[in-house]
Every structure is written in structure tokens, then in C-alpha cells.
Amino acid sequence: MSSESDQRYAMMDEKKRKRMISNRESARRSRMRKQKQLQDLTDEMGSLEVANNGIEGKIDGITEKYMICAAENNVLRARLTELTERLRSLNDVIKNLEMVGDATQLPDPLLKPWQVSCSMQPIPASSGIFQL
Description:
By secondary structure, the chain is mainly alpha-helical. The chain has one helix spanning about 1-100. About 75% of the residues lie in helices and about 0% in strands. The longest helix has about 100 residues, at about 1-100. Keywords: DNA-binding, Nucleus, Transcription, Transcription regulation. Its main location: nucleus. GO terms for molecular function: DNA-binding transcription factor activity; protein heterodimerization activity; transcription cis-regulatory region binding.
């Protein structure tokens, strides 16, 4: 009977040993899997950082172009306001000329400044004006 129980214990010891080896191998494979996953995630993080830096650069470039366009747009809006006011003023002038009638009879002192419509009176000068 002792030989039979020794054999049973030997089989149980063999099963324990095989199970222990199997568990160790399983744990080793699990650690290797986790290490590979960590390395894959680290590689992906690096590539995503590179892509992110590229996108940030594009955003900076587009933002700069936007600021330039916004400044040009402001200039154009101011110019539009100025030209609209000038057009309104010129339309008022045309309206007033139409009300007067024949505009060819009106003197234009800006076009012919030497033909001023007021009378020219000589200005008398005395000899004492330029003395101190």
C-alpha cells in the first residue's frame, strides 16, 4: 500500500510541477504581451505627437493668414465707407445742379482759379510796412 500511495504522491507532485511550469509560462507570455502592448502604445503616442505638431503648425499658418485677411477686410470696409460717403456727396451735388438748371453758366473757381468771380481791388501798400 505504501508503494501505491508513494506513486499517487509522485503523480500529484508531477501534476503540481507541470501546473507550476505551465503557470510560469503563461505568466511569461502575459508579461510579454503587456510589454508589446506598452511598446505599441508608446510608438503610437510618438506618431500622434508628430501629427499633432504638424496640425498645430498648419493652424498657426492659417491663423496668420486669417489675421492678414481680417486686417485687409477692415481696410476695405473703411474704404467702402469713404467711397459711399463720397458718392452720396457727389449725388447731392448733381441733384443741386439739376435744381439750378444750366450748370455751364456757373463759374468753377477750382477748375479756373485765375478767373475768380469777385472783383479784384488793388491793395495799397505804404512804404512804412516793411520797416521795423
